[in-house]
Amino acid sequence: MTTFLKGHGTENDFVIIPDAENAVALPPSAVAALCDRRAGIGGDGLLHVVRSAAHPDARHMAEEAEWFMDYRNADGSVAEMCGNGVRVFARYLQHAGLVAEGDVAVATRGGVKAVHIDKEGLVTVGMGRATLPEGDVTVSVDDRSWPARNVNMGNPHAVAFVEDLAQAGTLYDAPPFTPASAYPQGVNVEFVVDRGPRHVAMRVHERGVGETRSCGTGACAVAVATARRDGHDPVADGTPVTYEIDLPGGRLSITERADGEIEMTGPAVIVAEGEIDADWFAAIETVNP
Ligand SMILES: N[C@@H](CCC[C@H](N)C(=O)O)C(=O)O
């Protein structure tokens, strides 16, 4: 019997599989089937909840964080980090009585993240520092192109400022970029418009997923790219800066502190819990191991 839950953070939604001892086989085919919105449960990604000590990718973090977020994209691929995912993961731990409200450390492939669960339903995560690798790129949609800022939040992002979010088109397919060699592992692409002082709106095409209604690492990348465009560099200035980021699924607040650390705050919700049909689940592995 395999239990699942469903949760979301600003409508970036996840199938959650509690599996403390890492006993559930989750090959890419099983993840893709579970995340399928028509034939499965449906989600932008999957959060496999495992004790750090029980997972080979997380054993080295077990002293610092009891729980490991084994994150997968909807197509079954593994990504380094998921910002909304880690907030929903912490909300799940609280919901299941595995941690109390307040501070919790979560192990991820991007390192141990400090999360704070508050009384009002908001969850804040310390996302670490952004890096802005040299070599900006050009992103295209149909016959329009924009320069994009290369921002790494543990995972890769290309941030393009546009006049209107409709210019991003359907975002069904990944927007092409040049040079084609820029992101050998693929990239998440954000399109951004201004809404007001330190306030922008964005849409995103996520690597391994498609267009999603929110992306936490993407919102952090957008906040950093917008801050630099606006002449703010908190480390150089010694002054933190906060941006409000509107996404189709809600609002995230991103602060880049004077030490360069980035904090993201937003809601995280558990919406359902159930059992996966054992025959259906077994058939996925038999047909497509
Ligand atoms: N939705 C996530 C990002 C998930 C990973 C991404 N698709 C990638 O492949 O890098 C977020 O909230 O950060």
TrEMBL record:
InterPro entries linked to this entry: DAP_epimerase_AS (IPR018510), DAP_epimerase_DapF (IPR001653)
Entry's Gene Ontology molecular function annotations: diaminopimelate epimerase activity
Function: Catalyzes the stereoinversion of LL-2,6-diaminopimelate (L,L-DAP) to meso-diaminopimelate (meso-DAP), a precursor of L-lysine and an essential component of the bacterial peptidoglycan.
A single GO BP: lysine biosynthetic process via diaminopimelate
Active site: residue positions: 82, 215
Protein name listed in UniProt: Diaminopimelate epimerase
Residues that hold substrate according to the record: 12, 73, 83-84, 155, 188, 206-207, 216-217
Native source organism of the sequence: Streptomyces xanthii
Site (Could be important to modulate the pK values of the two catalytic cysteine residues) location in chain: 157, 206
